[in-house]
Amino acid sequence: MKLVETATHVIVAVVLPPLLLGIIVKVKARFAGRVGAPLLQTYRDVWKLLQKGSVFSTTTTWVFKAGPVVSLAAVMVAALVMPLGSHPAPISFAGDAVLFAYLLALGRFFTIAAALDTGSSFEGMGAAREATFSALAEPALFLGLMMLARKSGSASLTAMLGPGLADAWVNNGGALVLVVVSFFVVLLAENSRLPFDDPNTHLELTMIHEVMVLDHGGPAFGMILYGAALKLFILGALVARLLTPVSTGNEWLDWIVFVVAISALAALVGVVESIMARLRLLHIPRLLVAASIISVFAIILTR
Prior knowledge:
By secondary structure, the protein is mostly helical. It has helices spanning 2-15, 17-31, 41-50, 62-81, 96-117, 121-152, 157-160, 165-190, 209-212, 218-243, 251-275, 284-301.
């Protein structure tokens, strides 16, 4: 049974992420009165990119080539640490929440390093912005995890998001609402979504994440695109579990609940991006600091 559960976890984590990007694009298209790209367009894009060749600048080193590989590998391991719905994570131990946060940081570090390795002033600008905003987003993530650890009595994500989460909503519903809001802000910031960044913009002076990967192409860019979808998936799984702390007792029904919940969350991201404009760069730190303050209040309210 454990083997089947682990295999299902891996299959869902590998197959589902690109669909979330398709849902976001579809919702945004509906708001704009358009049909939009097919739901499965991201799968096609990744497949096409993996079949293409690669061109590397003579100014780059092994760091540029390692960036997409290490970033994707880090996010893949993070997906094995994150429990999906009511199902425990394949990799679970005391303190794995810290490992989860630093795996995301590791992937981000190599993305930034690869951007700097090109010697491009544009990519260096995007890398500087990414480093600044991520440094402000990490405290909000850690403080939210601290609240969950304090409530569950464990620093493991499987215990934090386990069966006791439903009772936590009864006893500490207000604190959990604050954590959900904080994590949702972190999700948008970490995945370079509006109002923090516009993933569809082509204006270098306003880009953050996209400008860092301008020189990547072929399989490397395919890994970056899939890694971005997987990162959205695992952070979305964290928020979705907090919003749907249910366990039906039926393993396969629980998987359906999880898929519906995270798909609805992707639709919510699409709605947010449709009704909000991109924030000015000076306002982004204020929102991230506010997310950290919200998490602090959640810790204070936890009984």
